[in-house]
Every structure is written in structure tokens, then in C-alpha cells.
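Suppose you are handed a protein chain with no further information: no name, no annotation, nothing but its sequence. What can you learn? This example shows the usual starting point.
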Amino acid sequence: MKNFSIAILILMNVSLVAQVQESIANERNEEAIVEINEDSLKALALVMMRNQDVDLRLEASEKFIDGLLGLLEEEGSFGNSYDSLFNVSKIYPQDSTFRIMTWQLYVDVDEYKYFGIIQTKGNKKQDPKVFRLEDYSARMRSPDHITLNKDNWYGALYYNMKEFKSKGGKKYLLFGFDAYKFFEKRKLLEVLSFDKDGEPVFGAPVIEHTKKRNNVPPETITYHRFILQYSSKTSINLNFNDLEDKVLFDHLISMGSGIPDIPYVMIPDGSYEGFELRKGMWVHVEKVFDHMYEQGEFPRPMPVLDDRKGKSIIDK
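A reasonable first move is to predict its three-dimensional structure. Written in C-alpha cells, the prediction is:
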């Protein structure tokens, strides 16, 4: 009986996916053919992730975000977890006053697009709000040192959040993944705050990192966001560690890549650096442990999404 029920569910999903794909392929006017609800969004997610036609994936993605925005604008929607949307990472601050929903779309071997939505819960002073985040990262030359907003966001898949107090009030560290390119990936520390009108602001000069090089005096640089770029053949850790009360990340060293036009790539060497909060600034800690961890031994929280058969949105 259980197997029969599962078979029925699979057939229903396949049927809905086929219906959604046919709708996208045939629809060239503004009249929607498929009713937008959580089930149809799940079917659109499957099209986005599995269809081989890039144009169809892009169209499905636009319908997905428009549909999700529509659902989130409905009264009481903040109470819906949307757990069935397996492609979407959803993170909340400790007080659950808002949530950030992010996901990625594979376009080509060297191109990924990111999509995001911030939904606030609302309170007696402010109505609930929904913000669409527009990925502008492909056009950014120096993303480390600029302040951004919802219309020119550095797109990433967020997997953790840490609240902290700094000059100007409450802020949040966001931990994100950027699939970036075929040979190189990125992880980043983003800084989120909200202005007096409740609009999201990305980036703030609160991250200090000290670089040391041979025969050169140490140089401390203040970042609006901190980005680690590394070889796609390895994985790195960047997360907040509650036991150490610090942000911990792999120390990276360069290695010849053997790839045309990319002379070297960065890989972890088994040691760890960090950032600790001091008077509202995240200050660099050059060496966190004396012990050299093996790759994968690093203490970290539960996976970004879930533990279904070891799957993760970021496949790391």
C-alpha cells in the first residue's frame, strides 16, 4: 500500500511538471495557464534544476520568483515555512522578525544566477514587507568595498546568519555560497542591515582582515563583505563556530592550476583563521587552532538545507 501511494505521488509530480513545462513552452501571452500555488512552484523548481533547455529554465525561474512573491504577499504567509520548496534556502534571525529565501540557477558552465527574497514579519510600527533581490554580481569589479541594496545585490545562496551590534545599530552576518565559475567557487561573509525606512542594506565597513606577505609589512584592510575564492576541486569552510564564538574559515594557499588563463587557484592547507567581534568590528584572528585539522574534520553545524540522502543545495 505504501509503495502504491508513493507511485501515485510520483505520477502526480511528473504530471504537474509536464503541465508546467508545456505551459512555459506554449505561453507567449500574459494569461497564466497553471494556477500558482506551492505545488506548482515545486514543479517549476524541478524544471529549473533538470530541464536541458536553458531558455526554459530561465523562464521557469522568472515564473517561480513571481509566483513566490505573490504567495508571500498574502496575509499570514510568514507563518508558512514552504518546506516543500527544496531548492530554496531559508534562514531566519534568532527573533524570527524576517527571513531570507535564496536559490541558484545554473545557466552555463561559467554562469550561475542567484535569486533572493526578504520577507519581514511586521509589527505594530511597520507593516510586513517583501523585497525582491536583484543579482548584480556579474557586473561588479570590486564587490569587497561597496554598499549595495535590493536592486544591486551580490547574489549568493545563504546558509547561515549571525546577529551582532555595531555602529549604527543591529546588523547581521550572512554566510553565503557563490558557484561562480566552473574552475573556481566562492564563499562570502555579507553584512545585512535595515535603514530607517526598513529597506535592506548590504555591506558595511565592519570586517578587518590583516594580510601578511614575505618581506612586506602587514596590511590591515577593512571590507564591506569578505569573499574567499577557491578551487572547485576542493571545498572550504566558512561559518560561525559557537564553541569558539568566532567566524572560522580555511586558510588558503595558492597552487598551480594547470588551466589556461588561470595560472593558480587557492586551496586550504589544513589551518584555520577567524574573525572575532570587538566593539562592533569583526577583527581578523590569524591562527585559531594549533591543531591542524584534516579536510572534513572541521566542526560545523547541520547542513544548509537538510540531510535527505546527504543532499545539499550547494553540494558541499
